[in-house]
């Protein structure tokens, strides 16, 4: 399971980075300026916020199922966790986590930048960059 989770995590991480690059290209296409740093800052902020929210929700979940909080004080290894608590823990860790991943996948249904559209954007940006280079070569002054 760890191998599967790590593989999926790596693929998702690469996909997010790729999506941010494509979104930065689309931003330049729409607004005429590059803003990679803005997109990557947003990605990093959302990762930190998701991590913090995940820890917070996990703590609430453990409190709701009455998971023991003082295991080390009572010998740790010799402590028995009641079966009903373990069953509820399994529900949070299994279907609960799957529900969160499903919600994330549903959000990406609204991501409309496909390969064909991105290729069109890149063609337009390349044409703009060539035109700007020709203007600079001609010695024209470009106003900011």
Number of strands: 0
CA distance, first residue to last residue:
54 Å
Rg estimate, integer Å: 24 Å
What is the averaged pLDDT score?
Answer: 87
Number of helices: 4
Q: Major sheet: size, sense and barrel closure?
A: none
Percent of residues in β-strands: under 5%
The arrangement of helices and strands along the chain is: HHHH
Poorly predicted spans: none
List keywords for this structure.
mainly alpha, single chain, 144 residues
Can you describe what's shown?
By secondary structure, the protein is mostly helical. The protein has a domain at 1-58. It is 74% helix and 0% strand. α1 runs antiparallel to α2 (36-64) and α1 (2-31) crosses α4 (115-137).
How is this fold's topology laid out?
Elements (H helix, E strand, L loop, with lengths): L1 H30 L4 H29 L18 H25 L7 H23 L7
What's the short version?
This protein has 144 residues and is mainly α. Helices cover 74% and strands 0% of the residues.
